[in-house]
Amino acid sequence: MPIQELIEFSGAMAEDGPVGAVTSDRQERYCALLGLYRTDHPWERPSTFQVVETDHVVRTPPVSDGEYDTVSVGYSPVTTVADILGAPVGALGRVGFGTRTLIARDGRSHQPFHIALRRQRRFDPPIEFSRSLLALVARASTRTPKLTV
Questions:
Q1: Would you call 143 helix, strand, or coil by DSSP?
Q2: Hey, how many other C-beta atoms are within 10 angstroms of the C-beta on 25?
Q3: Which of 35, 67, 93, 102 has its CA 20 to 30 A from that of 108?
């Protein structure tokens, strides 16, 4: 399944959540895995996770009050979920980290987030989206009977 097929199942324009954008480092179009991680628990799964198109305004689902780091990994829209899960970190895509901490109150943020995708560097921290991506695939496959990974 190409990751672009997951955009519609991840609520790319959810209501009442933080607003922002993931931008590409070139004029190429990417699909981005976007996660919001609590800054006080960065080792946990992201509080919210979506697949979004780059260079578009995105609204995430509402999150609990607190501070969040915004993280994204961008891939070609035709990259499959199997390719993402089987490739070494950074081999297929771009990475990006928010320019500032997102502060959420009442489920949303007062300032938009921005993540600029770029080539991964050796000293970038590892980004783990596998469980969140598989959960999204499972959700998508229950709504559309013919989806396969």
A1: helix
A2: 15
A3: 93
Which residue do the tokens 């980004």 mark?
127
Residues paired with 73 in a beta bridge: 33, 95
Beta pairing, strands 19-23 & 113-116: parallel
The count of C-alpha atoms lying within 13 angstroms of the C-alpha of 139, restricted to the half-sphere facing its C-beta, is 16
Note the pTM of the prediction, 2 decimals.
0.87
Distances (CA, A) of 60 to 35, 46, 50, 123: 9, 12, 8, 28
Digitized pLDDT (tens) for each residue of the chain, 149 residues in all:
899 999 887 765 566 889 999 999 777 889 999 999 999 887 788 999 999 999 999 999 899 999 999 999 999 999 999 999 888 766 767 999 999 999 999 988 989 999 999 988 888 887 888 889 998 898 888 865 454 55
Q: CA separation (Å) from 119 to 22, 31, 57, 69, 92?
A: 14, 15, 22, 19, 10
DSSP code at position 31: E
Residue 95 and residue 118: Cα distance in Å, rounded?
5
Name the strand (E) or helix (H) holding 133. helix 130-143
